[in-house]
Amino acid sequence: MLFVADVGNSSTITGVFDGDRQVDRWELTTSDRTADEYRFLLGGFLEKYRGRLTGAAISSVVPRAAGTIRGAIEGLVTGQVVVVGPGTKTGMAIRIDNPREVGADRVANALGAIDLFGAPVICVDFGTATTIDVVDSEGAYVGGIIAPGVRISADALVEATSALRRVEVEVPRSVIGKSTVEAIQSGLVHGFVALVDGLVAKVKVEARCPDAPVVATGGLASVLAPLSATITETDSNLTLRGLRLVYERNSI
């Protein structure tokens, strides 16, 4: 059995795989916890799997948190701990100017998408940032797009204006807001869906992959993906699936 963790700027998603089947999932707020605190939290989650976890795979865009979680999990698994980074075997060619620049979560997303839907494929991650990643017909990662995330934009809107307040990110009754709250919600929800649809349409033309499936993941995928004209699939565990594949390709 394998423990996996995707450490994001806002949330840390963890899970357990039994072979290729995911059997558990938990979400934590990413914070400056100590290794002892992570060991206490994760130990509680993983108690029922004690003695059966034979490895772990971690991706992180927060280097300090990745090291802390690795220190915590090493005492809870009996085998190798793989941290995705430069030099990690992925089995996927990365054809950009500097492959070291690609975030570990984006690599894992691409691997998970290839495993589920084949290549070419396009990944959309509605996380702290809104990212779009492209895999060509040969299964190579060829680049992507990074835009502000929905919640970052919502926070900036509130902080930069004196009359607007924070709202829940949910679908309003109509695109034309009938109140200030709904107007903000429309800008966030329908605005980001339009952003993604426009970018994906351009990506498909430039990458010459008009029929490529588009898979969405991330915390807001369940809210935004159903409104999209280009997103064809949604998988909230896409990154974790990719981490399982990375572990298999790097386990000794």
Briefly, what is this?
The chain has 252 residues and is of the alpha/beta class.
> What is the succession of H and E elements?
EEEHEHEHEEEHHEHEH
Beta-strand residue percentage: 15-25%
Output the radius of gyration. Answer: 19 Å
Shape descriptor: globular
Strand order of the largest sheet: 3-2-1-4-5
Share of helical residues: 25-40%
- What oligomeric state do these chains adopt? single chain
Unreliable residue runs: none
Distance between the termini: 15 Å
Mean pLDDT: 94
Helices, by number, come to 7
Q: Give the biggest sheet.
A: 5 strands, mixed
Which structural category do the helix and sheet elements fall into? Answer: alpha/beta
Number of strands: 10
Can you tell me about this structure?
- The protein is α/β, with parallel strands linked by helices and 252 residues long.
- 37% of the residues lie in helices and 24% in strands.
- It has seven helices and ten strands.
- It has helices at 35-46, 63-73, 104-117, 150-160, 180-206, 221-224, 238-250; strands at residues 2-7, 11-18, 21-29, 55-60, 80-83, 121-126, 129-135, 141-148, 214-217, 233-234.
- The strands form two sheets. A five-stranded mixed beta sheet has the order 3-2-1-4-5, sandwiched between helices. Strands 8-7-6-9-10 form a five-stranded mixed beta sheet, with helices on both faces.
- The radius of gyration is 19 Å and the shape is globular.
- The two termini are 15 Å apart.
